[in-house]
C-alpha cells in the first residue's frame, strides 16, 4: 500500500474483528479483501465512510441495503482484469476445441491415441455481459476468428466489440445459436440463476459454457444434470456458488469440465494494479475531482454516471 501512503493520506489497516470500531471515524474504506462478508454487520447505524472502494470488478458483496440507501459513493477496480480474463477465455476456448484436457489425461496415462480436433474459426461465441470484461473477451475471440455476438441490458446492432448485442429478453434465442456461451455479466437480481435447466436445454448439444462472471449466474445442479445427460458438450468454470468448490462436488471429476479456482483475472502484477487504481482515485478524492469507476447502486455495476456522486 506504499502508493496510497505516499499520497499523504493517513491510512489505518484493520482486520474483520476491528472493522466496526474503525468505520465511524473513516472517510474512505478500501475493501482489499473482496471475499469478506463482514461489512454489512459492521456498517454503522449512522455516519460511516463517504466512499467505499473494492478491490474487484464485482460489487455484489457491497450492495447490502444500508450501504445502498446511504449517500456513500461506491467504486470498483474496473479495468484491472479485462485483458487477463479475455486471454484466459480464449485459452479455454482453444482448450476445448483442441481437446487439450484429454491430451493431458492421455499423457499422464502414457497412452497414444490419435484424435481429430475442431476449428475455432467461424465458430459462434455469445458473450453475456457488455461491460469492459465482456468487451475485451469479444475483441480477443473476434481476433482469433470466432463470430462474436453479445447479450446485455440494451440490444443494438454493429457494436464495435461484440457485433450484434441481443437484449436480455432475447437471450433464449441467442443461446440456441452459440457454440460457446461466455458469462461475463455482473451478479444482479436480473442475472442471478439466468442459466438454469431451461436455458441449458436451449443450447446446442455441441456447445460449451464458460463462466468467468459469478457462480450465482448458473444453477449448478441444473448444469451438472445437463452435462451428465449430454445436453451440452462441456463447461469451463472459474467461479462457483460456493468457493472454494467443495471436494464432494461432481464437477471436479467430470471429464467435460474444466475447473479453475477463481483465477482468470489474476495475472502477474494484479495486486499492484489494484493499489494503483485506488491510489489514483484517492488523489482525485483529496483534490475534489470526480472519481472513476463510480457504481450505480441501483444497477449493480458502473453506469454512465462517473461523477463523485
UniProtKB/TrEMBL annotation:
Keywords: NAD, Oxidoreductase. Pfam families: 2-Hacid_dh_C. The keyword Flavoprotein does not apply. It comes from the Bacteria. Residues 90-264 form the D-isomer specific 2-hydroxyacid dehydrogenase NAD-binding domain. Signal peptide: none annotated. InterPro entries: D-isomer_DH_CS, D-isomer_DH_NAD-bd, NAD(P)-bd_dom_sf. This is D-2-hydroxyacid dehydrogenase.
Amino acid at each position: 500500500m506504499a502508493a496510497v501512503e505516499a499520497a499523504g493520506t493517513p491510512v489505518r489497516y484493520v482486520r474483520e474483528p476491528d472493522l466496526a470500531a474503525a468505520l465511524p471515524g473513516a472517510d474512505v474504506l478500501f475493501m482489499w479483501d473482496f471475499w469478506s462478508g463482514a461489512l454489512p454487520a459492521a456498517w454503522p447505524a449512522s455516519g460511516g465512510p463517504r466512499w467505499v472502494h473494492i478491490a474487484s470488478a464485482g460489487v455484489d458483496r457491497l450492495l447490502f441495503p444500508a450501504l445502498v440507501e446511504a449517500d456513500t459513493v461506491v467504486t470498483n477496480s474496473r479495468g484491472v482484469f479485462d485483458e487477463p480474463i479475455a486471454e484466459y477465455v480464449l485459452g479455454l476456448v482453444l482448450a476445448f476445441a483442441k481437446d487439450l484436457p484429454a491430451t493431458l489425461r492421455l499423457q499422464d496415462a502414457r497412452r497414444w491415441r490419435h484424435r481429430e480436433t475442431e476449428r475455432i474459426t467461424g465458430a459462434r461465441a455469445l458473450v453475456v455481459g457488455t461491460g469492459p470484461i465482456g468487451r475485451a473477451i469479444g475483441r480477443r475471440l473476434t481476433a482469433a476468428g470466432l463470430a462474436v455476438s453479445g447479450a446485455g441490458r440494451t440490444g443494438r446492432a454493429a457494436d464495435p466489440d461484440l457485433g450484434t448485442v441481443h437484449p436480455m429478453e432475447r437471450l433464449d434465442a441467442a443461446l440456441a445459436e452459440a457454440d460457446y456461451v461466455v458469462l461475463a455479466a455482473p451478479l444482479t437480481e436480473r442475472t442471478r440463476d439466468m442459466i438454469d435447466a431451461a436455458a441449458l436445454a436451449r443450447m446446442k448439444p455441441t456447445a460449451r459454457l464458460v463462466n468467468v462472471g459469478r457462480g450465482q449466474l448458473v444453477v449448478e445442479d441444473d448444469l451438472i444434470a445437463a452435462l451428465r445427460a449430454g445436453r451440452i458438450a462441456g463447461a469451463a468454470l472459474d467461479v462457483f456458488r460456493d468457493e472454494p468448490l467443495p471436494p464432494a462436488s461432481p464437477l471436479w471429476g467430470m471429464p467435460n469440465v474444466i475447473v479453475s479456482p477463481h483465477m482468470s483475472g489474476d495475472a502477474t502484477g494484479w495486486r499492484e494494479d489494484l493499489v494503483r487504481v485506488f491510489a489514483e482515485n484517492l488523489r482525485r478524492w483529496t483534490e475534489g475531482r470526480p472519481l472513476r469507476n463510480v457504481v450505480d447502486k441501483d444497477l449493480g455495476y458502473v453506469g454512465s454516471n462517473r461523477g463523485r456522486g
